[in-house]
Design brief:
This protein is 1% helix and 48% strand. It is mainly beta and 406 residues long. The two termini are 24 Å apart. InterPro entries: Host-pathogen_enzymatic-act, WD40/YVTN_repeat-like_dom_sf.
Length: 406
């Protein structure tokens, strides 16, 4: 069956932020320009840029617009709000969260205009966002208030960006149910639940996690903390979680950054929670490590990035809990976020951003554009060499650049 990412002249527009809904809107024209967060390698300001990623375009790899946010801001993840009419970026430094104003230039191309810092209260080190139907958004803060075993989830009003509540659950208070170093977040609104991962302390050395925690998205109460590791002493660092919903099998999926694996947990309708997590894919058997992002297309194909050595694995999830590996795409070291589009000549491609926090051997600083059917790399943009920057994340300019992310 043909993949249904973004048709040649249309963009997939989701009703949830960051590719979280299952609905397509074919009314917006697609462009092969994309937003990227970036960090400067020259001590200059970090920011957001617009870059052309169609290898068939004469200006492939050209940055047409830049918006500087400040030195050391380290913008980290780009997101659209639920209606895809507001753009946000989280950040590891600076104000931790910004709303980005964009417009079209005289040629109809996207242009970055300004950034408005959003008050995150005591919460530091911004990571992932999830927008919900009821006018809220949730944000994970891996640093929390700054303690050695901290971490929090902020609840915001999506209309005015005001912080409504900070969810905290220290491991010191309850070692069986807690939030610590949260990074990934996923929500199933129909079931009224959300899950966050416990990844790693922001300094990458003070502490590491090996759990995921399930919460009630309305009462904010913790329901259960799950081990996502081979043992209590295995500090696997779950980094992303995806609660499958809608037409997809009702499972939770998690990737482990230091474990390099994919884990799965079935939803239990009787308990209204998930059963225990089990490992469904062992990256070490394939010479893979640092499992990071998960994306799903409309035909039950799961795309998972492995930063080491820089691969994207494509799985069939139509028969979960069986996970069938279909193909392996080769990117560069640090393979991380992805967007999907169709080139001007009709080739269905995935663009892979290759960099993880400028960690040595995981920081190629490139974007690989790979034809999905053949696995051929059609073009590579070397941002490190060409611009002296490293890409941190990537997103579409006419709405989310994938079908379902978190």
């Amino acid at each position: 069956m043909k993949l249904k990412f973004i048709p040649l002249s249309f963009v997939i527009l989701l009703a949830f932020s960051n590719c979280q809904n299952d609905n397509h809107n074919p009314d917006l024209p697609h462009d092969s320009s994309f937003y990227i967060d970036y960090r400067s390698l020259k001590g200059l300001q970090d920011g957001v840029a617009v870059i052309e990623l169609d290898p068939e375009a004469p200006n492939f790899g050209h940055i047409s617009s830049k918006l500087e946010l400040g030195v050391g801001v380290l913008p980290h993840h780009l997101y659209y709000n639920q209606g895809a009419n507001k753009l946000y970026t989280t950040a590891l430094g600076g104000s931790y969260l910004y709303q980005i104003k964009t417009e079209k230039d005289k040629n109809g191309q996207p242009k970055l205009v300004s950034a408005t810092p959003i008050n995150t209260g005591e919460n530091t080190v911004g990571e992932n966002l999830f927008f919900t139907n009821d006018g809220r958004y949730f944000m994970t803060f891996m640093g929390g208030a700054g303690g050695p075993k901290d971490g929090s989830v902020g609840v915001f009003n999506a209309n005015n960006n005001q912080l409504i509540k900070t969810i905290k659950a220290p491991i010191q208070a309850n070692p069986n149910q807690f939030i610590m170093y949260p990074h990934g977040i996923s929500v199933n609104e129909e079931k009224g639940i959300m899950m966050v991962t416990s990844t790693i302390h922001p300094d990458l050395t003070t502490g590491m996690g090996n759990t995921c925690t399930l919460l009630d998205m309305n009462t904010y109460e913790l329901k259960e903390t799950y081990l996502v590791a081979d043992s209590q002493t295995d500090l696997s660092s779950p980094v992303e979680v995806l609660l499958l919903r809608g037409k997809f099998p009702q499972y939770a999926l998690a990737t482990t950054m230091l474990g390099g694996d994919i884990w799965i947990a079935p939803y239990n309708a009787a308990t209204k929670k998930y059963d225990a997590f089990s490992k469904i894919f062992d990256g070490s058997t394939q010479g893979l490590g640092w499992a990071l992002e998960m994306y799903i297309d409309d035909n039950s194909k799961l795309y998972v990035s492995f930063a080491d050595p820089g691969k994207v694995l494509v799985f069939d999830i139509s028969n979960l809990p069986q996970l069938k590996l279909l193909k392996t795409l080769t990117a560069d070291k640090g393979a991380h976020h992805m967007v999907f589009f169709t080139t001007k000549k009709g080739k269905e491609v995935v663009a892979v951003q290759n960099n993880l926090l400028d960690i040595p051997n995981l920081n190629s600083g490139t974007i690989s554009v790979i034809e999905i059917q053949t696995g051929k790399t059609l073009g590579t943009v070397d941002l490190r060499t060409k611009y002296g920057i490293l890409p941190e994340s990537i997103e579409g300019t006419n709405g989310p650049g994938s079908y379902m992310h978190h």
